[in-house]
Amino acid sequence: MKIGIDASRANRQYKSGTEWYSYHLIKELAKIDSKNQYILYTDKPLIDGLSNLTSSQEELKEAKHDFIKGEENAGWQKIISPHNNFRCKIIKQYLPFFWTQLNLSLEMLFHPPDVLFIPAHTLPIIHPRKSVVTIHDIGFIYNQQLYSHKRIESVSPAYVRLLNLLIKIITLGKYGSNVFDYHLWSTKFTLKHAKKIITVSKFSKKEIERTYPTDQNKIQVIYNGYDDKLYQPITKKFSPQLATNSINQILNKYDIKQPYIFYVGRLEKKKNISTLVEAYAIMREKYKNIKHKLVLVGSASHGFDEINYIIQEFNLNNEVILTGWMPEEDMPFIYYGATAFVFPSCYEGFGIPLLQAMACGTPIAASNISAISEIVEDSVLLFDPLDKKNMAEAIAKIIIDNDLQKGLIAKGQRRINYFSQKKNVQETLALLENL
């Protein structure tokens, strides 16, 4: 069977949740499946470990962009894989913002695979009958104020006006050319036309079924996994002395001083980072003996100006450390060196960093929202994400109480056994093969 996968997100240089989900799923599929043939569709040559699916983290920098001999002009890039059953079709993007709905659709029209798998939300208008899409969550429906309603920008204002007009005409005035409207339209279209939907938690499944008239049998919950070779207790990887040296090396790289608490993910409004910064300020003001820095790891996104304003307003420039995006091979050492990991989101479908923190043995303070409670059960200290004082008290408690830290670590180490990348991919492959 020929399985096509949209690898455009997995191929992004700066990855976060959905990008890492796509990336690790492809890497694991290459390990376990020798039976099917795979085509990865991208808008540019593969980078990182995707062009060499046998490579380790250390070898990624040496990966080359080799093309299949005689097929360079056709856009076929060579992929080294354990079972020699992967290759990449590079579909160039001719118009801004239309790669999925124009370029990928045309590829599906003329060269459809037996099954198309979209790991992140958006099904092309033209697609095979057997198409599967992962919808991670529908937070944009219930938290509209947290998503950008600005029009898609372009170097050409005339192109933006034309794009907006065309979308208005095609959708009979229902949608415009902004990110929020595209989420609305693409989700509705995907749920109607995909053969099967994967979602990442029971919470997300209930939310989708509550919002859209959908056959319950169409949606399957497959929990996310994590890279258990990269994220594991430091005692399994290093001797005590080497562990200390390795942690210090990475912390020095980003000018991070211990002690600290931290968050990882996009620095955007919907992740509730502004409230986290305010809660941190409240905690530092009340508990003078707590000297922990707040480390924010991730790329700036929609709403970052508000986050930065609050940092300035509370005079926290020397207390809040912004590292920017961080390569995944450095991330475990940030977990190892932290007193606690804080996850303040108001809405999540899953939350892969929760798995990473539990796997590394880092105590967690997190929002008491449904999806997080489903994933972590009793292995984290929960707080109300809308209550700054409650969040501040939870963070202070986890910093001060060593016995609480040890208990949460032990519970997290037990809970993490329910999740694995291999299990995620095995269940996904079984779904693809049995459409």
Rg value? 22 Å
Q: What is the element string, with H for helices and E for strands? A: EHEEEHEEHHHEHEHEHEHEHEHEHEHHH
Strand adjacency order, main sheet: 3-4-2-1-5-6-7-8
* Name given to the CATH architecture of the largest domain: 3-Layer(aba) Sandwich
Q: Number of DSSP strands?
A: 14
Layout of strands and helices, then pairs:
Elements: E1 2-6, H1 17-32, E2 37-42, E3 76-78, E4 86-90, H2 99-110, E5 115-118, E6 131-134, H3 139-142, H4 157-170, H5 179-193, E7 196-199, H6 202-211, E8 219-221, H7 240-253, E9 260-264, H8 273-286, E10 293-297, H9 304-313, E11 320-324, H10 331-337, E12 340-343, H11 352-360, E13 364-367, H12 370-376, E14 381-383, H13 388-400, H14 402-415, H15 421-433
Parallel strand pairs: 1-2, 1-5, 2-4, 5-6, 6-7, 7-8, 9-10, 9-12, 10-11, 12-13, 13-14
Antiparallel strand pairs: 3-4
Helix pairs in contact: 1-15, 7-10, 8-9, 8-13, 11-14
